[in-house]
Amino acid sequence: MTTTVTAAVVERRRAARRPAATVTRPGFVWAVPATLFFVLFAIVPLVLVAVLSFTRWDGLGAPEFAGFDNWVALFHDPVMLKSLWLSLLLTLLGVAVQTPISLLLGVWAAGPQRNRAVLSAIYFVPLLLSATAVSVLWRALLDPNFGVPSQATWLFGDGNLFGSQTGAIGVLVFVGAWQFTPFHTLIYQGAARAVPPVLYQAAAIDGAGTVRQFFHITLPQMRNAVITSTILMVVGGLTTFDTVLILTQGGPGTDTTISAYYMYQKAFKGFDFGAGSAIALLLVLVATVISLLVVRLSGYDRMRSTSEGL
């Protein structure tokens, strides 16, 4: 018996003296396929768009160098300046509407409620549909002649939600929230499930109720998820196009002509691909700057995870 105990002690001492196993990170070769894909389908097209923004090209023949003419005309175009403001407005409204709804739904979906899994699956159905299908669906439902508004004039007035700027913007915000709130709900659901249960247990012992736990535990622990979701909303809001194309076509007049739709009008309707490329590049720059500001001002760039990964 004494010999067995002594051998075990010696083995533990040897194990303690052994150098700790080092965790090796995967080599660069593993990143080559993703890097090539990103370069071919993101970097190269972006460079080509940047080059085209300094040319005149109608889609036929060879592009002609135009210097900064497209950019000068861009900043003197009242429709372009208005479209940029409308893009920012729709993005801001989208964030303001989707964030609280998706946050509350995500926290609820992460809980132990009865039939939660079934209800969550039903709620995520809009996320499976394409933006085009969703836009066509709501265009038919909100049609001023045959849709729901025409049958509920007591609520919608004359029933033509697309006849005013306020109504058209309201429709765009609603349809965008209806489709993409489930995506952000999924982000918050995962973040809520990652909150250590011991924090809620300690708070319950101290007498904290559900509401207090939400504001003092859940929200602070989900800060990274909130910032990530906001950045995705900003980028998605600034680059949305098909919803406007199908629902309002930039109308009434130019009241919903956002920058992405104006780019389509310039390039594919007016055959001015130089000006369209300038608008596209400007959108990329604006989205990048706003995303960097969100990251910087929120302190997201200084946060560190407890699990760094391999």
UniProtKB/TrEMBL annotation:
Record field: transmembrane: 27-54, 84-109, 121-141, 161-180, 225-247, 273-295
Protein name: Carbohydrate ABC transporter permease
SUPFAM superfamilies: MetI-like
Tagged with keyword Manganese: no
Principal subcellular localization: membrane
Family that this chain belongs to: Belongs to the binding-protein-dependent transport system permease family.
Species of origin: Kitasatospora paranensis
UniProt-annotated location(s): Cell membrane
